[in-house]
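Structure (tokenized):
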């Protein structure tokens, strides 16, 4: 049988390769964390920005929109009061 000899690397070479791999891993982790932090910061700034009318989409609506087709007497009286028609009608009478 033939014996196969394997050459082992020098301990310094193994240590240097381990340091290089750890350095690359550290760089990749720092890059990933910084990218994630910048994205999170941008998302927070966008979410907390002042709202501008018309840019936001509101869901929903009135449950019974037909109730607003014709105003009731109470609504008409309140509108007349707000418009000041009540004062004018008293002056004319």
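Design, position by position:
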């Amino acid at each position: 049988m033939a014996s196969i000899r394997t050459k082992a690397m020098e301990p310094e070479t193994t240590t240097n390769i381990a340091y290089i791999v750890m350095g690359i891993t550290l760089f990749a982790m720092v890059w990933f964390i910084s990218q994630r932090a910048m994205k999170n910061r941008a998302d927070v700034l966008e979410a907390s920005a002042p709202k501008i009318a018309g840019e936001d989409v509101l869901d929903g609506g009135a449950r019974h929109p037909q109730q607003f087709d014709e105003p009731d007497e109470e609504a008409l009286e309140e509108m007349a009061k707000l418009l000041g028609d009540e004062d004018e009608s008293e002056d004319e009478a």
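Reviewer-requested clarification: Residues 80 and 89 are 10 Å apart (CA to CA). Helices lie at 11-47, 73-83, 85-92.
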